[in-house]
Each structure stands twice: as C-alpha cells, then as structure tokens.
Amino acid sequence: MVQQARRRGIKPAARLLGCSPNTIRKWMARFDGSLESLSERSRAPRTHPNRISREAELQIVKAKRKLPPWGVARLKRDMQLPHSTKTIRRVLKERGLLRRYRRKKHQVKRCLREIKRNWALWQQISADTKDLIDLPEYQLQARRLGLPRHQYTAREVSTGALFLGFSDELSLTYAELFAERIQRHLATRGVRMQQVTWQTDNGSEFIGSWQAVEKSAFTKTVESVKSTHRTIPPGAHRFQSDVETVHSLMETEFYIERFKSRADFLSKAATYQNFFNYVRPNSGKENKCPFNLVGGKLLNPPLDLLYLPPVFLEDLLAQRIASFKKVHHVGVHP
User: What is the DSSP string of 81-133?
Assistant: First the structure.
C-alpha cells in the first residue's frame, strides 16, 4: 500500500486497493522504513477513569491474604469491600492470589483412603444402622417371612472388616448387645480393647435420649473394656462413609437375594459377611479383602479373627434374660 501510494499517488492507490484515501494516509504516516512500524497497534484506552487507586488494591490484597480460603463474593460481602466482584477478581488475578486449583472429589477420597490405610488395626470401628424395609426387592419378602427390619453394622476402618446384626426395631439395648458381642469376640482373639474407638452417629440407639444427663448404655458397654465411644458432629454423615459404603454395596449384592425363611436369611447373611471379609476385593482398600489387609498389619493373625456370624439381636436379648437366675417377687399393695 505504501509503495503503491509513493509510486502512483494516494487516490490512485486507494482506487487500486479498494480502500479510502484516509487509510492510505494513515499507513504512510506510520511507515518509517521498517516493517515493525506497520504492525497492528492496541486500541485499548491509554487511561482508565474507573480504575481503583493503589490503596484500594492493597486493601483487597490484604483481605485476601488474611482469609485465603474465601472467594471473591464472600470477601466483598463479609469484609465490606466497596468494589464490584469483577474488580476484586481482576486485582487478585493480577497479584496471583486467585485459587488456581481445587481438589476434585475423587482426589479428596484418595487422600482420605491413604490416611485410613496407615491407621493402626482396630484403631476405629464405625457403627451405624440401616432401615431395610424400604428396599424394593426385600420389602415383600420381609413382610411375608417376618424378616428383620433393621441392620446393625460395624466396620473396622483401616481394613474394612465387616460385622453384622439384625433386629425388628432400633433399640439402645440391641446396640449395646451388638457392641458387647463384637468386643467379647475381639478380646478373646487378643485385641487390646484400650486402643479401640467406636464411632457412631447421634441416633437414639447409640446415645439414648438427647436430653439424657448420664452416659448411654451403649457408651457404658464400650467403656467397660476401656474402649472409647465418639459421636460424629450432627449432620456430618461423611464421617461415616465406610459404613454408608457397605450399606450401598449390600443393597445391590445381598438384598437382591431370595430368602426362604428367617433361618435362610441368617445363613445367607453369614455367607455374605464371610465372603466380604475373606474373599471380596475392595477397590477402596487396595483391591484386597479385609483379612489380607489384616495380615499386612498383624503377624500371623488367627484365621477366625473376622469370623463372627451375624445374629438376630432379639435372640441375644432372650439369652441375657434367661441368664438371670435370681428372681425377686414383689408383693401387691393391699
């Protein structure tokens, strides 16, 4: 364009190239003999009338450094910054203070699995209950055969070892009997119960009445062998993820079975528990079964360490009542 304008003139060059004479004049004025002078120039304004002051930028930076986890909207709201979220974000981006990376959910799970994998054996047993009557495949069988309505679950966190119990109702007494049976089994296998912590939610079957002043029967049973009972914060169900995971697994692996009677149900539950503890690889536990993981933490563990067949907790209660030999008859008031 410049060469043609110098050779032919501005207007002939404009007709030849199909542009206005002013365009020719602009590029001729810019050309100083180098190709760099013909490069595009930024059209951004040289000044920004709405740009905030340096003091205001330092105020934003100070607020972010004081509270790094907070996002832009929360900084503006709670720190009462008199700037738009767009302005705050721009300032933080220029200073490299925006959160560049947020750990994804599966990465969080991986980190938690690594932490739990390094826990000591029997360091924590998570216990919970599951309502079974709302499972479609199980509901009709339960009503026809009188199968249990509730499952009591205990799971050792570091290896995933599973222990089960069943009843027709949620009860503090049944939870106490369930924990007592597991503790007796572990104690006879040489487990040091002083190192065990039981973790439960705040259900009445574990803590009794929320208005209770004294410790519940479940807590007293746990503490009777020097173990510890800890409850999770209200609503923090993720603290019980190990138990909730096995509940989800059993819905698709066990409760789709067909049962002939209560005895058949208990027999198949025992088979499933043994399969889970001694055979089934767990993708969340290094693709190993619980007993293999126990072998990595304990030298020559007894083969029956994880063998505790499920029971109907009503039967345990009946046995306890039958064991009371002394009966005192109270007279009737006249």
Answer: -SS-HHHHHHHHHHTT-S------HHHHHHHHHHHHHTSPTTSEEEEEEEE-T
Is residue 102 within 8 A of residue 177, CB to CB? The reply is: no
Buried b (16+ CB within 10 A) or exposed e, 112-134: eeeebbeeebbebbbbbbbebee
Q: How far apart are CA 188 and CA 120, in angstroms?
A: 19
Place of tokens 């790094």: 68
Question: Residue 257: what residue type?
Answer: E
Q: Which of 69-78, 112-121, 228-237, 297-306 has the highest mean pLDDT?
A: 297-306
Which 8-state DSSP code applies to residue 254? T
Tell me how many degrees the CA angle 308-309-315 measures, rounded to the nearest 5: 110
Question: Which residue, 92, 245, 227, 100, is CA-closest to 162?
Answer: 245
Residue 18 has pLDDT above 80, yes or no: yes
The residue to which tokens 């199980």 are assigned: 138
Q: Give the integer Cα–Cα distance in Å for 70 and 72.
A: 7
CA distance 89 to 112: 32
Whether the Cβ atoms of residue 85 and residue 123 lie closer than 8 Å to each other: no
User: Helix, strand, or coil here: 198?
Assistant: strand
Q: Spell 42-75 as b/e; 16+ CB within 10 A means b.
A: eeeeeeeeeebeeebbebbbebbeeeeebbbeeb
Alpha-carbon distance of 32 to 52, in angstroms, equals 38
Best CA proximity match to 280, nearest among 311, 241, 306, 310: 306
Query: 201: exposed, middle or buried (C-beta count within 10 Å: 0-12, 13-18, 19+)?
Result: buried
Largest CA distance in the chain: 135
CB atoms within 10 A of CB 181: 17
Both tokens of 154, joined, read 């205990």
Is residue 95 very low, low, confident or very high in pLDDT (cuts 50, 70, 90)?
A: confident
Of the candidates 320, 328, 62, the residue with the CA atom closest to the CA atom of residue 174: 320
